[in-house]
Amino acid sequence: MSAYRGRFAPSPSGLLHLGSLLAAVASWLEARARHGKWLLRIEDIDPPREVPGAAAKIIAELAAYGLEPDEPVLWQSTRRAAHDAALAALLDSGLAFPCACSRADLEPGGVYPGTCRRGLPPGRAARSIRFKVSGQIAFDDRCHGRIEQDLDRDCGDFVIRRADGWPAYQLAVVVDDAAQGITDIVRGADLLSSTARQIALQQALRLPSPTYLHLPLVRGADGRKLSKRLGSDPLAGSDRRSALRAVLTLLGQPPPPAIATLDGLWAYALKHWNPGAIPRGIQPAAADAILLAEDD
Ligand code: GLU
């Protein structure tokens, strides 16, 4: 068995919020509990959605919580050559193709109808590159159990290089997780539906597949994600020990007693860390109670 290597891979499209803190905390605790490494990768490959200064603030806020990566931060934007090499390999092997379609050309539900799979229609120029999907992908998520997805039916051939020339998230995340030797991925359940596409790419690129643990999405009673309710800078000014305690409770871990220091809380959290207790979904009532407590 290879040594455990985990990571937290935020996009700098906003600041750290309760949902992303949950992913940072769980991925860190699991890496520490497994005597492994915890890496930090800033996924800055979407300049239009990037919030200036967000990356530096995320890194600083993580450090303020005591979450320091074991290796230098990897900036995904520096990895263009590797992303381009993977795109070229997929094109060369016929597993990817240039596509002229835009969102408006998709079927209702966003499924790609295969328009450019056998070549660009006459007179149309390539905008993006898509990966050719075929059939079913199955994997075992450590929290959600067996997941099976039929990529033909659910999404069809998907974009791996965007119309603006940047690699798509699905491609970049697969190439960089492999390059960083990531063995175990712990991240939010909003990415559960991306995992089958990523495994399909790992198989096509002959890269190893890590294990997956998707954390529950935190929703308020109104069904909205907590992060949205908490505004753009939700953790600013909130006491870090309270936020960490809230996150541990949402992760189904035993409620830590009142402990004076952040270090003490981390030691307690690590000693009692039990990934098997992480709930698949978070009760709106529990989430709301935490929100109310934070509002006090
Ligand atoms: N960068 C992605 C995000 O912030 C997460 C990538 C991942 O964990 O796979 O949503």
Comma- or semicolon-separated keywords:
elongated, 3-stranded parallel beta sheet, 16% strand, alpha/beta, 10 helices, 3-stranded antiparallel beta sheet, 296 residues, 10 strands, binds glutamic acid
> What distance separates the N and C termini?
47 Å
Instruction: Determine the mean pLDDT.
Output: 91
Radius of gyration, whole Å = 20 Å
Number of separate strands:
10
Helix tally?
A: 10
Helix content: 25-40%
Secondary-structure element pattern, one letter each? EHEHEHEEEEHEHEHEHHHH
Low-confidence stretches: 228-233
Spell out which ligands are present: glutamic acid
Largest sheet features: 3 strands, parallel
Proportion of beta-strand residues:
15-25%
User: Largest beta sheet: what is the strand line-up?
Assistant: 1-2-3
Shape: elongated
Supply the helix-strand structural class. alpha/beta
